Amino acid sequence: MEEIKVNYIENIKIRYEDLTKSEKKVADYILSSGEKIINQTLTDIKKSTGVGDATIIRFCQKLDYQGFSDLKIAIAKVAFEKGSDEEAPDSYTALVGSRLINAIKSTIQLINTKELNKGIELIRNSKRIFIFGVGASGVTAVDMASRFLREGIQAEAITDSHYQAQNASLMTSEDLIIAFSLSGRTKDTFDSCRIAKANGAKIIVITNHLLSPIAKKGDAVLQTTVEELLMNGGSLSGKISQLCICDLLITGYTITYHINSLKIREQVLRSVIDKEID
């Protein structure tokens, strides 16, 4: 298939009159929604337009995209190029700093205290804690496990999807999963949470989208606030928002249950103090 030379907006406008009435509904919805489409699924489009899967696929193919995923990538490219144009060489340092600061501020402002306290209680009442994340969220999962350890909490970060599913299959009501997914739609994480939930395990979900499939599996759901472009996944802003919630959970736990952090930190420090080279 030849590379499409125009962006998705121009492509739709050029082909608009060749579309059927149902396909035009899809076109109108995509043109009005823009970048929001990146985080939507075929099911979301169906609900919003009232058309079927076949109509959406035919629409994509009439625009010379192989399917809905290709269309989403085309939309993501436009969003990415728009962001790149705004990042002039003389302003990108301030822009990066502003994004990180805003990630923390917006996360704190939107935090649901009731859900946060529920999460802290789940940590307290669990015998075993597993932290699930894949891709960029896997990096956050490993970091959170390390932070837990410094507070005397032994938690296992699992970033391999097969290992997640295997562990989930053996979980009980005494186990807790902390699941990271900015989109809330990561299939591997969702599948593992579904298995664990069926076995009675409790789940804390940390995600951008409170109504996402993974969020619906959560006993406590905490919202991150950084929308990542499809072409720019794994950004530091997204991790900062996730890590901010990590700190809220861990700090809240140590304060609520009067954990002697200093003594525990000293024990942990003594275990690695001789690891540095003279």
Which descriptors would you attach to this protein?
278 residues; alpha/beta; Arc Repressor Mutant, subunit A; Rossmann fold; 2 domains; 5-stranded parallel sheet; 12 helices; 5 strands; 57% helix; elongated
Descriptive report:
- With 278 residues, this protein is of the alpha/beta class.
- The protein has twelve helices and five strands.
- α8 runs parallel beside α11.
- The longest helix is centred in the last third of the chain and has 21 residues, at 236-256.
- The termini are far apart.
Shape: elongated
Q: For this structure, what is the CATH class of the largest domain?
A: Alpha Beta
Estimate nothing, just give the exact number of structural domains. 2
User: What percent of residues adopt helix (DSSP H or I)?
Assistant: 55-70%
* SS-derived structural category: alpha/beta
Keywords: DNA-binding, Transcription, Transcription regulation
Pfam families: HTH_6, SIS
Domain SIS: 119-259
Domain HTH rpiR-type: 6-82
